[in-house]
Design brief:
Layout lengths: L2 E7 L2 E7 L2 H24 L5 H45 L1
Antiparallel strand pairs: 1-2
């Protein structure tokens, strides 16, 4: 059952809906991470608008997601290769 929650990101409250307690926890962690990144960008780029800093955060997060997807894909390929090696080994043992 969805639950309405309020998250503060960079000092501004946002009302959202979390589908589960686990999702609520992830959303709260994400809001905390975004706020921390915004604080870092505030220090590095004090003249930039909050919108620009949110774009920086979005790009950084999207790049991290794409990197994780590439790594996951490589790991899946490695697992599949190992499964093939194990199957071949077991077939050789049967002969």
């Amino acid at each position: 059952m969805a639950q309405d929650i309020t998250l503060k990101v960079a000092g501004k409250p946002y009302r959202l809906s979390a589908a589960s307690p686990e999702m609520e926890q992830l959303m709260r962690l994400a809001a905390s991470d975004v706020t921390a990144m915004m604080t870092k960008f505030d220090a590095r780029f004090p003249e930039s608008s909050p919108e620009d800093k949110l774009v920086f955060v979005a790009i950084q997060e999207a790049a991290g997601k794409l990197s994780a997807q590439k790594k996951m894909s490589r790991l899946v390929d490695e697992v599949e290769a190992l499964q093939g090696d194990i199957s071949a080994y077991l077939e050789g043992m049967k002969k």
